[in-house]
Amino acid sequence: MIRVEDLHMHFGGIRAVDGASIEIEEGSITGLIGPNGAGKTTLFNVVAGHYTPTSGRVFLDGEDITGLPPHELFHRGLLRTFQIAHEFSTLTVRDNLMMVPPAQKGERLLDAWFRPGEVRAQERAIREKAEDVIDFLEISHVADELAGNLSGGQKKLLELGRTMMVDAKIVFLDEVGAGVNRTLLHTIGDAIQRLNRERGYTFCMIEHDMDFISRLCDPVIVMAEGRVLAKGDVASVKADERVIEAYLGTGLKNKVIA
Question: What is the pLDDT along the chain (258 residues), one digit of tens a residue?
C-alpha cells in the first residue's frame, strides 16, 4: 500500500532521514521503532505531507504522492495522529467527531439558506456516524464532555475516532501509547486490532512500548541514524545484533528495547 524509496530528508547539515526505504502492506499493523533521533517521526512527516523530502519518492497504491500536502492525502485516505493529541478542546467529544467529514453543506451559506433540508439530512447522517464511532470505541460516557477535559488516553482514543469518521485507508500513529495508563492502553490496542480485522484499516505506528508493539505489530521496522536497520517479526528483530547494538547506549548486553 505504501512504498517509500530511498528517502532523504535533510535539515541543513542534519540528515534526519538518510536513504530509508520501507513498504507497508495493505491490511498490516506495522511497527516502526528505533532509538531517539532515528528519524522515525521525520519519516512519518514526509509520508503524511508535512515535509517535502530532499530526495526520494513516496507511493500510495502505486501512485506517486511525494510532496502532496496533508489535506490532499486526507482525501485519499491517508491520515496521521500526533504524539500530542490535537483535539478541539472547547467542543464536546461528539462535536469533535462531527467536525471531521469534509465538504459539509452546512458550512456553505447558500446551502444553509436554500437547501436546509439537505443540510439537516447530512447532519443527521454525520451524527449517526459519530454515534457509531462512539459506540465502537466504548466512550459513550464522555460523548458530551468537552474534549479539553479528557485524560491523555481518552484524547488518543478521540484522535483514533476522528480517523474513523472518514473511513481512512491507512493511519500513521505517532506514539499512541505515550502518557497513557495501562488500562486505557489496552483499550486503545483493542480498538486498533478491531479496526484492522473488522474494518480493514492498515496501520503504521511509532511506539517505544515493546509490549504494546509485540501485541499488535507484524512486521516491525527498525530505524537508526536515518536508515532502516532491520525488518521482521518482533522476535527476530529483538534478537538482531545490529538492533541490540543500536539500542545500547550504556553497554548493557541485555538492555530491553524500548
Answer: 999 999 999 999 999 999 999 999 999 999 999 998 999 999 999 999 999 999 999 999 999 999 999 999 998 999 998 877 789 899 999 999 999 988 777 777 777 777 888 888 889 999 999 999 999 999 999 999 999 999 988 999 999 999 999 878 999 999 888 878 888 899 999 999 999 999 999 999 999 888 999 999 999 999 999 999 999 999 999 888 888 888 755 444 444 444
Are 63 and 75 a contacting pair, CB within 8 Å? no
The packing angle between helices 116-137 and 152-164, to 10°, is: 130
Domain 2-87+152-255 maps to which CATH number in 3.30.450.20, 3.40.50.2020, 2.40.160.10, 3.40.50.300? 3.40.50.300
Rounded-to-integer distance, Cα 31 and Cα 62, Å: 21
d(CA 63, CA 141): 42
Q: Which amino acid is at 66?
A: T
> DSSP character for 142?
G
62: left (phi over 0), alpha (psi -120 to 50) or beta: left
| Identity at 46, one-letter amino acid code | V
Q: How far is CA 102 from CA 57, 110, 126, 184, 195, in A?
A: 27, 17, 11, 29, 21
